[in-house]
Amino acid sequence: xxxxxxxxxxxxxxxxxxxxxxxxxxxxWAKVSPLWPVMLLYNGQRHRxxxxxxxxxxxxxxxxxxxxxICHRHADYATRGYGTKFVKDKxxxxxxxxxxxxxxxxxxxxxxxxxxxxxxxxxxxxxxKK
Length: 130
Description:
The protein is mainly alpha-helical. It contains 6 helices and 2 strands, in the order ααααββαα.
């Protein structure tokens, strides 16, 4: 039977070496503790910490157990551009006060988002009258 210390060691080993995001650099505590990002938010220093981490580790930084921060000029298109497989995080569900109302900013379902985009895209094109 495993004792608590062994379980913790196995968990830390998994997070550091076997997790799908293990190859990305980042602070030790961000990789193994779910409380690290919470403390940044609580202290109100998340924006400064992100800037510092990106200057230290580069464009791709692991900032949570399952979270990757990408700071690259093409990242927006790669993660939200045409044909991407990325889905918006569950945090977007809390952007609206009414769960029955959605917008471009908060819509997570790709099919619904594309339907909304098809309706409004002509209004934002170069050919739209001013």
